[in-house]
Amino acid sequence: MPTSALPVEDVLPQLRAALHSHASAVLRAPPGAGKSTLVPLALLGESWVRGRKLLLLEPRRVAARAVAQRMADTLREHVGATVGYRVRLDSRISARTRIEVVTEGVLTRMLHDDPALEGVAAVLFDEFHERSLQADLGLALTLDARRQLGTDLRVLVMSATIEGAAVTRLLGDAVRIESDGRAFAVETIYGAEGSPALPGDAESPELRVARLVRRALHEQDGDVLVFLPGWSEIRRLGAMLAEAPCKVVVLHGELPAAEQDAVLRGADPGVRRVVLATNVAETSVTIPGITVVVDSGLVRRAVFDPGTGMSRLETRRISRASAEQRQGRAGRTQPGVCYRAWSEGAQRSLAAFTPAEIVEADLAPLALDLARWGVQRADELAWLDAPPPAMLDSARELLRRLGALDDADRLTAAGRQLAALPLHPRLGAMLRRARAAGATRLGSELAALLSERDLQRAPGAQREADVLLR
Predict the structure, then answer these.
(1) How sure is the predictor about 89, in pLDDT bands with cuts at 50, 70 and 90?
(2) Backbone φ and ψ of 186, nearest 5°
(3) 212 in Cβ contact with 191 (< 8 Å)
(4) Which pLDDT score is estimated for 104?
(5) What is the pTM for the complete model shown?
(6) Alpha-helix runs per DSSP H in 342-412
(7) What value does the mean pLDDT take over residues 155-174?
(8) Residue 453 burial (CB < 10 Å; 0-12/13-18/19+)?
């Protein structure tokens, strides 16, 4: 197998030995160590794999596609041969595929369809520190299926900033492996006073970051990766940098795949780029030419409001673990520099880890998945953080009102139909009623508008909120 000198190579013999004799392992390796791409390739030839597949979970579609492409390049093959991917609305796999890179929701559906995961030797949870709801659910269902069915399925949890002891306890008979090296050193520069600026502060986050980007362009060589909380900040900062001596490009999850690929291919010779990105670039994505990171210190997360029964987007300061992940993007291919838009003192005041999504998200989809799995009490499964009982009860009450659960919280026929749809249960119920009313097309269009990118976010589009315009 072709290799490259990356820090994780030093622990690959230890990892192979661990998974040869144990059912589970936890690998902690710093950003840029190569775990996402080298580990699956290194495990493929192990005797316990015996021609079966490896599933590699990535938290985002852009990362899944990029990781699959990088492994295929290492093997000098096309994506869809030995290495393929499966994400929402897109897949490239074949009968030859032995490593399948999937997003977390895809794993949940695979488990529902086949709890034994026939033909799968191991599930690798990459970048588990992000603690997405689907990752926590996927791990809980995988461990439950392995326990109930007695399979020899291996489980490997990987991250740069994971709480290794807690995950090791969750997995039971797990070996914990540490890779201490980093591919290249990264210098950290604290470029502002106080904590990361929030929207509404005296100095806007974009203004502070724009100043640091200009400083970085003056003081450093190489391309610059800028972390911002969302599309609106990307658009405003792009306008501020219109006269800067560089090419400004963007990278976020809603960007069409072809445009994402163009960013990940790198710049033309002689062109210096500033890449404005959301935290989609925080993990498992290598952008050629990046040697400088400018970090706003902000992230946007969906937070469930029990009072309204709806989720809202909230801009908040990142954790120290997330800051470490972002910093590591500057040292992927050579020594780099990270400019942080806050002070060194404020760094110590940041939360140590990002809160698990399961403790603050809308749990209606989770409650539906648990009912489909046949679980009526969440404590029947093993969790790193269990779903909050009050929020889970509220989610189940919603599902009962939608007709998805009966009074004993068992899945109804309508609930089985909702569970088969890749939509929030509210939108799935709307589709069912639309079909019953003979308005399937209208219901489908409304579901797409409410769950996907706003069609009116294009430049020059009307900004009214009226759904009829859409």
Answers:
(1) confident
(2) -130, 125
(3) yes
(4) 81
(5) 0.89
(6) 344-349, 364-373, 389-401
(7) 86
(8) middle
Residues 6+ apart with CB under 8 A from 372: 112, 411, 415, 416, 419
For residue 298, what are its two tokens? Answer: 């902000």
For residue 439 the two structure tokens come to 């308005």
Place of tokens 């461990």: 143
Residues 6+ apart with CB under 8 A from 161: 28, 129, 321, 322, 324, 325, 353
Q: Report the alpha-carbon angle 69-65-145, nearest 5.
A: 115
> Do 434 and 405 touch, CB atoms closer than 8 A?
no
Q: Is the pLDDT at 465 greater than 80, yes or no? A: no
Backbone angles phi, psi at 461, to 5 degrees: -75, 155
Distance CA 381, CA 386 (A): 9
Cβ atoms of residues 292 and 223 within 8 Å: yes
**Phi and psi at residue 284, to the nearest 5°:** 60, 15
Q: Identify the pLDDT of residue 313.
A: 86
Write the single-letter amino acid at 162.
I
β-bridge mates for residue 411, sequence order: 405
Place of tokens 């269902």: 141
Q: What share of the chain is helix, strand, coil (3-state, %, to 5)?
A: 40, 20, 40
Residues for the chain: how many in total?
470
pLDDT of residue 407: 93
